[in-house]
Amino acid sequence: CKSRSESLSFICWDAIAVTAATTMGSISIAGVDVPYTAIVSFLIVIVSSILFLGSSGGSNSTPDAAPREAASSSQDTSETTTGIRSASKNVSSVSTMSQWKDALNEAEGDVVVLFAASWSKPCQKIVPFYEELAEIYDAKFILTDVDELSALAKKHDVNMMPTFMLFKAPHGGVLETVSGANKDKIENILKLHCGVKPSS
């Protein structure tokens, strides 16, 4: 660490230089001046961060990492695909951009998309409800696994699973987005925008 003539360096960690400014009544930390009166709060934040990193082993794991590993280790080996799928004839499961484009081209009305992940428990629980909605409402229902079709999820800023999006037909923009497994909100959006299928 370099010390300037008007400052006294007293702590240096790799790239962070903590300098006590003798004339200003503050401490300069990586170019940010912190008043002496705020140093106690600052030290509490630093110590808490160090203790937190020490207790977590310093890893950058996310809460989703554990369910993802558990799901991959307990998958049914009889499955030919790894992504989440629908067994309903009323829901198109898409895993490629080509399938996505085909599904949109086949749509005669609005399109409802469920962005899900096979490792997500809320997604696994919401798929049967989504299949029920596909039997009731007059729209094209699509299910896509974000791990298989990450480009599509990224394009639509999908950051949480499950995420439901309603697209205006034909090939219009997104009308509504629901993040999370809020069944009432999802159904209310469908009631508002999509009609009930005609009885056969």
Domain unit count: 2
Helix/strand order? EEEEHHEHEHEHEEH
CATH superfamily of the largest domain: Glutaredoxin
Number of helices: 6
InterPro entries: Thioredoxin-like_sf, Thioredoxin_domain, Thioredoxin_H-type-like
Protein name: Thioredoxin domain-containing protein
Keywords: Membrane, Transmembrane, Transmembrane helix
Structure description:
Residues 62-87 are annotated as: Disordered. The protein is of the alpha+beta class. It has two domains: 7-55, no CATH class; 91-193, Glutaredoxin. The protein is built from six helices and nine strands, in the order ββββααβαβαβαββα. The strands form two sheets. A five-stranded mixed sheet has the order 5-7-6-8-9, sandwiched between helices. It has a four-stranded antiparallel sheet with strand order 1-2-3-4, with no helix packed on it. The radius of gyration is 26 Å and the shape is globular. The model is unreliable at 1-24 and 55-81 (pLDDT under 50).
Outline of this structure?
The protein is α+β, with helices and mostly antiparallel strands. 34% of the residues lie in helices and 24% in strands. Strand 1 and strand 2 form a beta hairpin.
